[in-house]
Write a structure and sequence with these properties.
The chain has 140 residues and is an alpha+beta fold. It contains five helices and three strands, in the order H-E-H-E-H-H-E-H. Strands 1-3-2 form a three-stranded antiparallel beta sheet. The longest helix has 17 residues. The chain is globular, with a radius of gyration of 17 Å.
Length: 140
Amino acid sequence: NNIAQREYQKEYLEYWNSTAEATGTGEPVDAVIMPVAPFAAARPNSYVYYGYTSIINVLDYTTCAFPVTTVQKSIDKVDSSFKPVSDLDKSVMSTYDPEIYDGAHVGLQLVGRRLQEEKVLAMTEYVSGLLSPQSGKTHL
């Protein structure tokens, strides 16, 4: 319900503001970088986990997704030592097939506060530029 959602948004806003204690500027963080999904591109009937994006919708925060790499079947093999921590974890991992995902984009999202669309777009352009193969950088 709306009251519960507003309370959750208020609690998260307080948490976000508390990051000011951890930054060198005394200001809260401008944004957070997080996955869009626990897998590369979405496949029909295989998208079983929405946690990375649904939380942003509940908070009504601003986000912008951007690609950072692509799956390479020769590198991104199935991890035979993988031990799922839950049934959901097992279900998500079972959807991965390097042959199907070869060449698929892997994305991140940059998340900012409510009503910060222009700021989030500018930060996303900057961050995605740093991660672009043309930049010559391999990390931030």
